[in-house]
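2024-03-11 09:14:02 INFO worker-7 job=invfold-0412 stage=load source=structure_tokens
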């Protein structure tokens, strides 16, 4: 029976309660062994501490070890506090980068998917001022390939249609607002289309293309930076969206929300995204 690991996240957040609710929901597929990793006693709901952050990190490290060394089939990660982790020396911007490093990989990607939208990110956890100099043809090509593979194999779409956003307002307006569309994004799209793995179009005007994707004209969108892609996705799919780390040897998924310390322990946290994350991990396995 395939084993799905579930990390508790920061035990001071809503991770423990949404995991419990998901496991008790009756909505998870049969034929899987769900194993929760983490120390609940290390945190008090709503009161994050260094100890609760350390418990979250210990769970991450244990899950990575078991993915590498045992037959564990996938991991679903509970929400963590990046600030809390970094206060105890965590050197990564987020969990996506942690698992990439744990497997010694350089070509992984972050994708979020829900009932309405699927969005891959060309850059991830960096400051907005750093996006233009961090955005490269290689980063767009990498997430384009990984997103196309996800749509083809996991969404069972033989000929994916993938829209690629521009970076600037109006997709640069022919250079009036920036040249990244001409010098970086359009050449990357040309390379992606030469691979014949999907039909990539763009650079599209960022403030309009998500409406077309939500109406089913595209199977996925490639966004140039974190909030460009996640604002529309969370607006439309917040309760059911799932974060997927692409390119790992074993699947990693996560709910699309954070620790929500303000409501932890009150019994009002919605487990829908955790349920969706566990179900998708099972599907990927």
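2024-03-11 09:14:09 INFO worker-7 stage=emit residues=285
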């Amino acid at each position: 029976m395939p084993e799905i690991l579930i990390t508790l996240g920061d035990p001071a957040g809503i991770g423990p309660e949404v995991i419990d609710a998901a496991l008790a929901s009756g909505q998870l597929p049969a034929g899987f062994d769900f194993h929760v990793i983490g120390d609940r006693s290390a945190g008090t709901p709503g009161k994050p501490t260094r100890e609760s952050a350390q418990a979250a990190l210990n769970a991450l490290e244990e899950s990575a070890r078991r993915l590498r060394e045992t037959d564990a089939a996938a991991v679903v990660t509970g929400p963590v506090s990046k600030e809390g982790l970094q206060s105890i020396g965590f050197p990564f911007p987020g969990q996506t980068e942690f698992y990439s490093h744990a497997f010694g990989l350089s070509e992984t990607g972050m994708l979020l998917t829900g009932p309405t939208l699927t969005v891959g990110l060309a850059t991830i956890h960096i400051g907005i001022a750093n996006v233009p100099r961090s955005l490269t043809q290689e980063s767009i090509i990498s997430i384009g390939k990984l997103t196309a593979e996800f749509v083809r194999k996991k969404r069972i779409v033989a000929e994916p249609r993938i829209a690629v956003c521009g970076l600037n307002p109006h997709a640069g307006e022919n250079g009036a607002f920036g040249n990244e569309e001409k010098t970086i994004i359009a050449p990357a799209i040309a390379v992606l289309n030469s691979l014949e793995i999907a039909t990539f179009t763009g650079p599209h005007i960022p403030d309009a293309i998500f409406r077309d994707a939500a109406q089913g004209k595209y199977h996925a969108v490639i966004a140039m930076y974190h909030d460009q892609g996640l604002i529309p996705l969370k607006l439309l799919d917040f309760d059911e969206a799932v974060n997927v780390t692409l390119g790992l040897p074993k699947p990693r998924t996560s709910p699309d929300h954070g620790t929500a310390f303000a409501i932890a322990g009150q019994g009002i946290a919605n487990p829908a995204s955790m349920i969706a994350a566990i179900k998708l991990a099972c599907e990927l396995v």
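2024-03-11 09:14:09 INFO worker-7 stage=report msg="The chain has a mean pLDDT of 96."
2024-03-11 09:14:10 INFO worker-7 job finished
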